[in-house]
Design a protein that fits this description.
GDSL esterase/lipase, 4 helices, two-stranded parallel sheet, alpha+beta, GDSL_Est/Lipase, two-stranded antiparallel sheet, hydrolase activity, 108 residues
Length: 108
């Protein structure tokens, strides 16, 4: 639908990001990006390390960059940074299409 809209609107540029594909690639080899833990949250609630919300009295991990998740629903700061880096400068078709976010910012 968006590609059809772009064909009708001269100068219209867009980029779609594949977060699922990036996550799948990252989780298939977590050590390649420095993760040592892709299942437990860094901000641990009292039950099973993320079943409760991250609260001021929650335990925090000491190795935050090695965790994929901050809490039960949010990526860690490193996860957000890796996503931004991959979407901003990605080989088109790998995690972004039809262009990466850098190309989108440079389009006029």
């Amino acid at each position: 639908m968006i590609a059809g809209l772009a064909a009708k609107l001269p100068g219209f540029a867009y980029s779609l990001a594949d977060l699922y594909g990036l996550t799948e690639a990252t989780f298939s080899d977590p050590g390649a990006v420095g993760y040592t833990d892709i299942s437990a949250a860094c901000c641990k609630g009292e039950i099973l390390g993320a079943e409760e919300a991250c609260l001021p009295n929650s335990m925090l991990c000491t190795n935050r960059d090695q965790h994929a998740f901050w809490d039960r629903v949010h990526p860690s700061q490193r996860g957000a940074m890796l996503s931004a880096m991959n979407f901003y400068r990605s080989r088109p078709g790998r995690y972004t299409m039809p262009i990466d976010f850098k190309g989108l910012t440079e389009s006029s």
